[in-house]
Design goal:
Two copies of one chain form a homodimer. Chain A has about 325 residues and is α/β, with parallel strands linked by helices. Chain A has helices at about 40-55, 95-100, 110-120, 185, 190-200, 205-210, 220-230, 230-255, 270-285, 305-310; strands at about 5-10, 15-20, 25-35, 65-70, 75, 80-85, 90-95, 105-110, 130-135, 140-145, 150, 260-265, 295-300. Chain A has ten helices and 13 strands. The model of chain A has no long low-confidence stretch (mean pLDDT about 95).
């Protein structure tokens, strides 16, 4: 039987958030402290333990399902291990084992993109959808996959690396070591990079005036605002971004025949010009004659989606 | 409880094969007739029914699990419907319903690439492997996916269209209407097309003499033989084929974190030069720092793999 409360932990590169969350995803109580990455794993894990204990004081243990933790990176969900975290700079840390020594509750660790997908499936627009991918667009490009109503982890728990699927085989070198990865084109810094390239070529744009020649002031948010104001170059950048996403997502659909694509994260706020181009590309590239088309929906991740998503791991 | 026998049907564009198969995948009896596609669905389905009845005569019905049918194309496994079959030229045929009117047994219809993957998982090199893709290389490029020990169908039963994942976004037009699909580069006719292009450019090769200038005599088998004899151009073609496959399969692994890739089908007989290049490409492009590398194995599909695979659908 499911109990009434779960503790959710969002272990990010900037903040650690720990919350008491009820069965319906409501936050009852929340604590938040800076992560301070430079202090290293042991200090940070201690801080997580202290916060969990603080929250535990308010609830009888028999009303708690356990602790659900969401973290970025290469997570071995089954072994409770972080193989690699790019924002914490951790390698091979047995996080669950370390916390279990101090906390006598079931503990579940999950990649944050998977937790976001689970959130969408439990409380978001993908409720009742059996097979879906949740795409998080931001600095990085993440993917969480729900198949047959469950988070799909794969062999080693690494499934969902949408951002490192190949877009252009002979394309630009990616941080991961491969070439032409999707993230290298539609991750936030690379969207900006593409815009700067176009501006430098001399294309007419309202951006030039807005930043008075200081390219470092160009952000996805500026490109978004200018696109809404009708700036041609900004619109081109978002249309191209939608096309690039669509090319890779069409491959995903041809492979997995999903019912829904949920797009979330900061960059996805660009709106129509991004989504129209994404949907057009999907239509052109999805294989087959059977009726019915994958639904594409946008969902703004709420501020507390991280901790709530993590708490839902016991649902 | 599983019964002792199953009837397997391999519904191909050239032949219909129907066999009585035991629990261990042994063929007890087999009948085979030409499909004669031009006669249309009703005639062909009648022929299938007659063959099934013929086989049924030899077994008491209480010893039969049912009839498993494998067919190429876009198959709705749940509804027993063929949405589209490129080799039978069928569209929207409720095959299972039509057969059920005459045959009083459970009937299961499956895409042939899925049936091949299931065969690999039940009796082939993927025995005991939970998550894998089986790639069939031939005129077309197919994929069958096993996730968590079961055939993965997706939303509408269309999953596994590996051949229509995008290799080159701005590449050659594919029969499916999209551009730069993997199949458009590594399907048998296109391997030959790439070879002819290279030969016409004047590259030195033993192929030129073997076909005395008649390009229509170039086949994957000739390219395979000449590669084994050391012909540089033929070796290049296979290395390129391995690289192309590797680029798309690395994307598949980054998305699905599979444990094994099984390669089968005629074209995969090219051997080492293909596989070395495929494995190198995977190593370069698979994301992550966790130990362990997807295994790539080659499996020659036996002559009767179609009917046996179909019969295993009740396993």
């Amino acid at each position: 039987m499911k109990k009434k409360y779960t503790i959710g932990v969002d272990l990010g590169g900037t903040n650690i958030e720990v919350a008491l969350v009820d069965n319906k995803g409501n936050i009852i109580k929340k604590v938040k402290v800076p992560t301070r990455v430079s202090e290293g794993p042991d200090e940070i894990i201690n801080r997580v333990i202290i916060l969990i204990k603080k929250i535990m004081k308010d609830v009888p243990p028999n009303k708690l399902n356990g602790v659900g933790i969401g973290a970025a990176g290469e997570i071995d969900h089954r072994r409770g291990r972080i193989w690699f975290s790019p924002n914490l700079f951790w390698e091979n840390i047995p996080l669950v084992a370390k916390i279990k020594k101090k906390i006598n509750l079931p503990i579940s660790l999950e990649n944050d993109a998977n937790a976001a997908a689970w959130y969408m499936h439990q409380l978001g627009p993908a409720k009742g959808v059996d097979n879906l991918i949740c795409v998080t667009l931001g600095t990085g490009v993440g993917g969480g996959i729900i198949l047959n109503k469950k988070i799909y982890h794969g062999w080693k728990g690494k499934a969902g690396e949408l951002g490192h699927m190949t877009l252009f085989p002979k394309g630009l070198k990616c941080n991961c070591g491969s070439y032409g990865c999707l993230e290298r084109y539609v991750g936030a810094p690379y969207i900006v990079e593409r815009a700067i390239k176009k501006i430098k070529k001399g294309e007419k744009t309202s951006i030039r005036d807005k930043v008075s020649g200081d390219w470092s002031k160009i952000t996805p948010y500026l490109l978004e605002r200018e696109a809404r104001q009708g700036d041609k170059l900004s619109k081109e950048i978002w249309a191209e971004t939608g096309e690039y996403l669509g090319i890779v997502l069409a491959s995903v659909i041809n492979l997995l025949d999903l019912e829904m694509i949920v797009i979330c994260g900061g960059v996805s706020k660009a709106g129509e010009v991004l989504f129209d181009s994404l949907k057009d590309t999907l239509k052109k590239r999805i294989f087959g004659k059977s009726p019915g088309m994958v639904r594409v929906v946008y969902s703004r991740l709420k501020e507390d989606a991280g901790v709530i998503g993590a708490s839902l791991l016991f649902s």
